[in-house]
Specification:
The complex is a heterodimer of chains A (526) and B (160). Chain A has a seven-stranded antiparallel β-sheet with strand order 8-7-6-12-11-10-9, sandwiched between helices. Helices cover 43% and strands 26% of the residues of chain A. Among the domains of chain A are: 66 residues, no CATH class; 57 residues, no CATH class. Chain B is of the alpha+beta class and 160 residues long. Chain B folds into two domains: 58 residues; 80 residues, PH-domain like (Roll), CATH 2.30.29. In chain B, strand 4 and strand 5 form a beta hairpin. The longest helix of chain B has 29 residues. At the A-B interface, strand 1, strand 19, strand 20, helix 14 and strand 22 of A face strand 1, strand 5, strand 6 and helix 4 of B.
């Protein structure tokens, strides 16, 4: 049915399950265990969860059994839960051991099915350390050792937990490379440290409205647990009995925004307190941050393919930008959902962001600050048309439904029709102004986006292919989109709607020799 | 300046393969509607009408579109790169250099086997850079996969 000819780029596939074969190193003395206090940790964590679940459960049960028996049942259940969690973790601790061999890192886990995993040391790209507050009290940390391959979770070994000195030893040992010939004479040590004034960018990020909405949702959810959701709504209704509906909506929205702002400030402090970006000897970038949960992320500079200067609309209006790393092989699983795993610098004033980007790339000036070639006017037309369609379609649908069902929808449609085009045109023009591409030294730079403007500087040597796209409409307008594919970061970085010839010339100049054989000159037509 | 079309066309049997795919795709809803139409008397007209419309549209597409696709889908392999053009409304040119190719897969689905065709997928280290050549003669595909494998094995580096 299918024949497959796969070839791996090096004879050494990332993680095989055979134990290390090097002679002389396989003594049992090298094997280490996780820290014993993991049992205490999981008991405490389960206790916390149990306590959280106990309140609504007790309330729920007390209705049927009476308060006394309900508490007894819940207590018994909690003790059983905590006990089994601790016992389970004890077994896990007993059965888990790891070893740093000369060539490989090995981890054995599992009760019935013993899982033996090993990573070749030369393929290890990242050693990340996190510690949540409970772990920090006990001086413990979780260590993730990754090879940076995209093949699922198998490329990451997790040691949970070990002591802090042990984590430091692991990090130094595993990331220590022969520090030979680092290009340029760029400074080591601290590249950036937190400036508390940057907190002013926290409330204007997109986190704030999201948190505001979440807060309102949480109030409803918790009140629902206590069967009091109706009362809450009634109470709110009572407060605003004498005011109009509009005032009530405005006040509630303000409250949500306020909650969002407070939440965003809190989150920022928790995430970025003690932030430091350092370059360590041997070519590793290290980011440390976190107020309660401390995190340490190490990025090998060998894996760095560029930086992405991200300016969401909110913080861009205040002249700030965030710097993300474009690297191959950062942990790609659960961390990615938090979206801040590859952030080198939180939202900071643009000059600071450019300076950090330049420092990180070992350049004198950041390629992200290079002057960019703009895109033809046709690109603006495309954006404007798209924005107007995006407004027109919902307005028409609302209006149609309004005619058929209720006039309230007509008013909403009218509101959208008034506000929508202005916002759409503003965003479209802004997006067009943002478009640009350039070649700056060893980097190619592409910029796009309005709500989330991204200026990506990608190392030209890191480009591993091109994709050129042109729809029927683009063909008519004489533009096309050029995408550089890469093993790092998002995998593809696109210059949208460039002029046809200009875009192709940009691509062929960025990576000499790759595109040229497939290009042909056409005589300019009238 | 523009991209020139790649040198090779697909195997002419690809047209038949695409037609078969289209016909299968339209046959399923048409049959369902037709069966329901014969069974449910009162709604017969409103079930058979869309069935007929779908059947006509599907057959029309099956006859015309593949011919058009055949003209636009082209491929080429040089010593330096794999170059593929696909798409009609939304044209796409993909270029993957030999030195960055990681795997070469040949896949033959049941319908493809019937038409003695195969699909060659060339992947690079990028999650978004895979190049697919669909509708090759299966012997051409096997030869191509072998050639690509040989060239990429001779190329040093870890392809990132």
């Amino acid at each position: 049915m299918s024949s497959e000819a796969a070839l791996s780029p090096s004879p050494d596939a990332g993680d095989d399950r055979s134990p290390a074969q090097e002679p002389g190193t396989a003594t049992t003395a090298d094997w280490r265990r996780l820290d014993r206090r993991t049992v205490l940790l999981s008991a405490l964590l389960t206790a916390g969860v149990a306590a959280g679940a106990a309140v609504p459960t007790t309330l729920g049960l007390s209705g049927r059994l009476g308060l006394g028996p309900a508490i007894a049942w819940v207590l018994a259940g909690s003790v059983l839960l905590i006990g089994s969690a601790a016992a389970g973790d004890h077994v896990r601790w007993r059965r888990t051991r790891y070893r740093i061999g000369a060539d490989r890192v090995e981890l054995h886990t599992g009760l019935f099915l013993v899982k033996k995993r090993s990573l070749a040391r030369e393929r290890i790209r990242s050693v990340d350390v996190t510690a949540h507050p409970l772990q920090r009290v006990l001086g413990l940390v979780t260590v993730r050792i990754g090879t940076g391959e995209h093949s699922g979770n198998d490329s990451t070994l997790e040691l949970d937990p070990v002591t802090r000195p042990e984590s430091e030893r692991l990090r130094r040992e595993l990331l220590a490379r022969a520090a030979t010939g680092t290009p340029g004479t760029h400074r080591e040590g601290e590249l950036a440290a937190l400036d508390p004034r940057w907190i002013r960018y926290a409330p204007v990020s997109f986190v704030a409205p999201a948190l505001g909405g979440a807060a309102a949702g949480a109030v409803m959810q918790v009140s629902d647990w206590f069967g009091a959701q109706g009362q809450v709504i009634e109470w709110v209704g009572d407060r605003f009995r004498d005011t109009s509906l509009l005032t009530m909506i405005v006040i509630l929205a303000l409250a949500a925004v306020l909650a969002g702002v407070v939440g965003a400030l809190g989150l920022w402090v928790e995430m970025w307190w003690n932030y430091r970006l350092e370059r360590e000897p041997g070519g590793t970038l290290r980011i440390r941050r976190g107020l309660l949960t401390s995190r340490s992320v190490s990025i090998e500079e060998r894996r760095l393919r560029g930086v992405d200067l991200v300016e969401p609309l909110g913080i861009r209006t205040f002249g700030a930008a965030r710097v993300d790393a474009i690297t191959t092989g950062l942990a790609k699983d659960d961390e990615e959902q938090h979206g801040d795993h590859n952030t080198l610098l939180p939202a900071a004033p643009r000059p600071v962001a450019d300076a950090v980007a330049a420092d990180v790339l070992r350049e004198t000036t950041s390629p992200t600050g290079a002057p960019l070639t703009g895109h033809p006017l046709a690109a603006r037309g495309r954006r404007l048309r798209r924005a107007l369609w995006a407004v027109a379609v919902p307005v028409l649908v609302l209006a149609l439904l309004g005619v058929l069902l209720t006039p309230v929808l007509l008013w909403i449609a009218l509101g959208c029709a008034v506000v929508g085009p202005a916002a759409g045109v503003f965003l479209a023009r802004d997006a067009y102004r943002g478009l640009g591409h350039a070649i700056s030294g060893d980097y190619l730079v592409v910029r796009s986006g309005s709500v989330r403007r991204s200026t990506a500087a990608l190392e030209r040597a890191g480009v591993i292919g091109w994709t050129v796209r042109q729809t029927y409409f683009q063909r008519r307008a004489g533009v096309l989109s050029v995408t550089a594919t890469t093993a790092a970061g998002a995998g593809a970085y696109t210059a949208y709607d460039t002029d046809m010839s200009e875009g192709l010339r940009f691509a062929s100049e960025a990576v000499p020799g790759l595109l040229e054989p497939f290009l042909e000159r056409v005589p300019p037509t009238g | 300046m523009r991209l020139r079309p790649p040198n090779n066309t697909l195997d002419p049997r690809a047209v038949g393969w695409w037609r078969a795919q289209w016909l299968l795709l339209t046959a399923t809803p048409v049959l369902v509607l037709a069966v329901l139409g014969t069974l449910i008397g009162p709604a017969r007209f409103w079930l058979l009408l869309p069935a007929a419309v779908l059947a006509v549209l599907g057959t029309g597409c099956a006859v015309l579109l593949p011919v058009w696709w055949f003209r636009t889908h082209r491929w080429e392999v040089t010593d330096e790169a794999v170059y593929v053009r696909t798409g009609v409304f939304r044209q796409e040119w993909r270029i993957a250099p030999m030195s960055r190719i990681q795997t070469v897969d040949t896949v033959r689905g049941p319908l493809e086997q019937l038409f003695r065709l195969a699909t060659v997928t060339v992947t690079t280290a990028s999650a978004k850079g895979a190049v697919r050549i669909e509708g090759l003669d299966h012997e051409t595909a096997a030869g191509l996969a072998e050639r690509l494998t040989r060239i990429t094995q001779d190329t040093p580096g870890d392809a990132t």
